[in-house]
Amino acid sequence: MDNELNVTYITFDGHVEVQKYRYLYFVIMFTAYILIICSNSTIVGIIVIQKALHEPMYIFIAALLINSVLFSTAIYPKLLIDFLSEKQIISYSACLFQWFIYYTLASSEFFLLAAMAYDRYVSICKPLQYPTIMRTKTVYVFLILAWILPACQFSVGPLLIANKKLCYFILKGIICNSTIQKLHCVSSTVLNAYGLIVFVIAVPLPVLFILFTYTRILIITYGSSREVRRKAAQTCLPHLLVLINFSCLTTYDVLVGRLETNVPKTVRLIMSLQMIFYHPLFNPIIYGFKMKEIYKHLKRLFRPDKLN
């Protein structure tokens, strides 16, 4: 729909009884947002302050948690406003921007996980070469690429569809994701082809690389001592848990946007909330409790009386 200023607005149609439960939704999501900010920021702060954690693995973890905060900040403020509004609407240009941020940061997560997998592979399989390979400069290059490459890839999509004619103005969801393409009068073959290429680069390739590196780690550590196997499992398991969790949620998001499926509104809402609620909280829990060094500093922070 258009107003007198010629601004096109999109209506979100993914909320379930928002008029009835608006304040309940708001309190739950506001609490979740605060928890996401505090939990992720606490671990990032610990990694920054503690010089013992200034190692590539922990730097990548900090980057991953910062990514979660940025991802949530791109989603939650608008979502909280919608819960308290009579109409859940967004301008088409703002929707494209949210779409761009959403997928750029989601893709960055896979690249960061791939960088972490490579770091673990070099650390465990080539320990003598580790200081030479994983230098500070190399870590910074990986971090820059993990954010710049997805931003470049996903900037093309909004540019291609920014001026496309819309025939539909109701979006089946609570955020702007790949379902935005269903609003256009004519489906873009170029955009679909480009989207498929970007998807392969952003998801399957990093995932295959991660699985390959961890398979190599398992093969090499299988014949090693029990202590080596324990250390490998201790450092690799959190990364694999995060990968599996995020891969499942991303696969669902992409399939819903690409396939003509009539997913019930309640199911669609629950899955959308999984992506924006569960995953950003999952990362700090996994890395906070499963990474021994981080957990040790967390205990010192919250239980100073137990230092000795």
Keywords:
mainly alpha, 3-stranded mixed sheet, 3 strands, 308 residues
Describe the protein:
The chain is mostly helical. The chain has helices at 18-49, 56-84, 92-125, 130-133, 136-161, 189-202, 204-222, 226-258, 265-290, 292-302, and strands at residues 9-12, 89-91, 170-171. The chain has a three-stranded mixed β-sheet with strand order 2-1-3. Helix 1 runs parallel beside helix 9 (265-290), helix 2 (56-84) runs antiparallel to helix 3 and helix 3 (92-125) runs antiparallel to helix 8 (226-258). It starts with 8 loop residues before the first strand and ends in a 6-residue tail after the last helix.
Overview in brief:
This protein has 308 residues and is mainly alpha-helical. It has 10 helices and 3 strands. A 3-stranded mixed beta sheet has the order 2-1-3.
Q: How far from one another are the termini?
A: 65 Å
What's the β-strand tally?
A: 3
| Main β-sheet, spatial strand arrangement | 2-1-3
User: How large is the count of helical segments?
Assistant: 10
Mean pLDDT: 85
Shape: globular
Largest sheet: 3 strands, mixed
Quaternary structure annotation: single chain
Radius of gyration: 21 Å
Provide the low-confidence segments as ranges. none
Determine the structural class based on helices, strands and strand pairing: mainly alpha
Q: What percent of the residues sit in helical stretches (DSSP H or I)?
A: over 70%
**SSE arrangement, N to C:** EHHEHHHEHHHHH
Q: Strand portion, in percent?
A: under 5%
